[in-house]
Amino acid sequence: MSRVRIVPANEASADDLDLVMREGGDARSCRCQWFKLPQSQWKATGTQARADALVEQARCGQPGEQSTGLVAFVDDEPAGWVAVEPRVAYPRLLTARVPWTGREEDRTDPDVWAITCFVVRKAHRGRGLARELARAAVDHARASGARAVEGYPVVGDADVSSLYVGAVSVFAAAGMTEVSRPTPRRAVMRLDLR
After folding, report:
1. pLDDT at 190 over 70
2. Which residues contact 159 (CB under 8 A, 6 or more apart)?
3. pLDDT at 159
């Protein structure tokens, strides 16, 4: 039986996070910057700059600092990542159709956190690691004082490249329920923590 340990990324090294990203599909070039950067900046930012930005945001190797996500280790080997922090940290998310269609809520509420991205190395897929990362992300948000946490998964069958936002079942396993369906292919899952 494999041993899984999930820690804030500031307790992992930059090399640990880089390994997960390099072997995690689209994360190799995105580095969890899609929701962080407006479209114009996204196009003007190269892969290395995105990688550097993620390491800085995650505060790798800086225990005690607030991180932007969690790293999963399986038997002490870096295996996965989940991005989780206040929703206001994602400028593109605040202006997108998802999650706002059909919802009236203060988009700039800093007490609502968002889980925006999952990365699991190929060798560790199909073993429930995304579910464990989602549960850990909810616990992390709660411990950090979040009032609620949301995710924006793909609905139904999806190709692997679009699953970086997670699947409905992953968020449901973390206790979240669907609160809206802004598009036929995208749900908003949420858990109120207070």
Report:
1. yes
2. none
3. 65
Contact 158, 187 (CB under 8 A): no
Q: How many CB atoms lie within 10 A of CB 144?
A: 16
Q: Which domains, ranges and CATH numbers included, belong to the chain?
A: 4-192 (3.40.630.30)
Residue count of the chain, please give it: 194
**Does residue 38 have a cis bond before it (omega within 30 degrees)?**
no
pLDDT tens string 25-58: 788 889 999 999 988 898 899 999 999 999 999 9
Q: Listing from the earlier edge strand, what are the strands of the sheet with 77-86?
A: 4-8, 69-74, 77-86, 112-120, 148-151, 186-192, 177-183
Helix (H) or strand (E) segment spanning residue 190: strand 186-192
Can you give the pLDDT at residue 145? 96
Read off the tokens for 23. Answer: 């072997």
| 69-74/186-192 β-pairing | unpaired
Whether the pLDDT of residue 128 is over 70: the answer is yes
